[in-house]
Specification:
Distance between the termini: 68 Å
Number of helices: 7
CATH superfamily of the largest domain: Chitobiase/beta-hexosaminidase domain 2-like
Low-confidence stretches: 1-21
Helix content: 25-40%
CATH architecture of the largest domain: 2-Layer Sandwich
Order of helices and strands: HEEHEEEEHEEHEEEHEEEEHEH
Mean pLDDT: 91
């Protein structure tokens, strides 16, 4: 009986015991992780080195430096380097390595005095930086400065490349409009978890969300619905919130968001639906419909 109790008590410990290679919480899980003793400390005098004369390598460095500036208050210096050599001081190195097979792959080595990320392209270096970001305390990349945090990353060697070439998330702004600031925050989260595609659902029966200068009525009429169904569609009678729901992105805002995403190695797929799911557009231009209207921007959900 004692042996059975002992087994029941300690068996869960063996089941959930993790080897050092599995103790680092990184999402998505890298292909290979080897944790080591010690840690690297990000300091105010930490420098980021990038390959000299190679286009685009400043982008991942600048992105990481901007995260550091906000959450740590450090202004990390970015310097080009002709040839990689083992760093003497506290530094982060982005190193061009043509031998890495995947354009989005990388190899990350964290030592007590340095971090080195080998990659074939700036995109791979960017994803290596996102892994480094997750190795640091969760406050790193926050919206304010955290003065009392020790910015340490566990020493390790990580090799990684994406399993899927297309890694995307979708956001339906046709049925529910989100402000540009939220879209950028959404893109930042996608970047953190190494997504590379943002499917932007811009038009629906319930609202048209992108400015088309040739068709101004889309902005004036199609971007607003009078109210929105609340509760279940099966509820009778239908109930509505009685509030207008409006919103549209100007072309300038769209271009700004596209550029914002590009700096995070994210491609935007804009979805503009035709001929289905186009009730909002027909409300603005009823002559394009089969019956000539009149139409109304949908206030319910369903197929119209």
């Amino acid at each position: 009986m004692f042996s059975l109790r002992f087994l029941l008590l300690f068996l869960p410990l063996t089941i959930f015991a993790q080897s050092p290679s599995n103790t680092l919480n990184i999402i998505p899980q890298p292909q290979s992780v080897e944790a080591k003793k010690g840690s690297f400390t990000l300091k105010k005098d930490t420098r980021i080195y990038i390959p000299e004369g190679q286009a685009g390598w400043d982008v991942p460095a600048q992105y990481f430096a901007s995260l550091a500036a906000t959450s740590t208050g450090y202004r990390l210096l970015i310097q080009p380097m002709k040839k990689f050599k083992e760093p003497k001081g506290n530094a982060i190195h982005l190193v061009l390595d043509p031998s890495i097979t995947s354009d989005e792959g990388y190899r990350l080595e964290v030592k007590s005095n340095s971090v080195v990320i080998w990659a074939k392209t700036p995109a791979g270096a960017f994803y290596g930086m996102q892994t480094l970001r997750q190795l640091l305390p969760p406050e790193f990349g926050g919206t304010r400065s955290y003065g009392s945090v020790k910015w340490e990353a566990t020493c390790c060697v990580i090799t990684d490349a994406p399993r899927f070439g297309y890694r995307g998330m979708h956001l339906d702004v046709g049925r529910h409009f989100f402000q540009p600031a939220f879209i950028k925050k959404y893109i930042d989260l996608l970047a953190m978890y190494k997504y590379n595609t943002f499917h932007w659902h811009l038009t629906e029966d319930q609202g048209w969300r992108i400015e088309i200068k040739k068709y101004p009525e889309l902005q004036r009429i199609a971007s607003c619905r009078n109210e929105t169904l609340i509760g279940s569609y099966g509820d009778q009678p239908h109930r509505f919130d009685g509030r207008k729901h409006c919103g549209m992105y100007t072309q300038r805002e769209v271009k700004d968001i596209v550029e914002y995403a590009q700096k995070r190695f994210i491609t935007i797929i804009p979805e503009i639906e035709m001929p289905g799911h186009s009730l909002a557009a027909l409300t603005a231009y009823p002559e394009l419909g089969c019956t000539g209207g009149p139409y109304e921007v949908a206030t319910k959900w369903g197929v119209f």
